[in-house]
Amino acid sequence: MTHPSVTTRARGGAGRGTAGPRTTAPWLTLAVLSLTTTSVAIQQTLVLPLLAQLQAAFHTSPASATWAFTATLLPGAVSTPPAGRFGDLHGERRVPVVCLVVLVIGCAVAASAGSMGTSCTS
């Protein structure tokens, strides 16, 4: 049988006057991670059916319109490993929220673009 202070300390509680780690509600972490995952999935799959309409709306070639799809996949592939590391360092709740804010800002910039050249080069 272990000493009660060892068991309490292992569970994250205070033991012998030391403060335990700050804990967050697991449902809140799950909600933020679920929202992040859903947002990324929607962002990546939403562009594919729109490629023909993007080509017509922006008067561009099929190759340029395909960059709209690549532009949604590339930042996700590049940012996933650092975001995971930052989540380990700074908290698994804070980093997904920052990623969602960046996603919303990127969507606003893309929505305000007047052409494919503007959205890809600005």
TrEMBL record:
Give the span(s) annotated as Disordered.
Answer: 1-21
Membrane-spanning parts: 95-116
Q: Sorted alphabetically, which InterPro entries does this protein's record hold?
A: MFS, MFS_dom, MFS_trans_sf
Q: Which domain of life is it from?
A: Bacteria
Q: How does it sit in the membrane?
A: Multi-pass membrane protein
The entry's keywords: Membrane, Transmembrane, Transmembrane helix
Domain Major facilitator superfamily (MFS) profile as annotated: residue spans: 29-122
GO CC aspect terms: plasma membrane
**Gene3D superfamilies for this protein:** Multidrug resistance protein D
Compartments it resides in: Cell membrane
One Pfam family matching this protein: MFS_1
The molecular function terms of the Gene Ontology recorded here are: transmembrane transporter activity
- Any idea what this protein is called? MFS transporter
Q: Could you tell me which species this protein originates from?
A: Saccharothrix australiensis
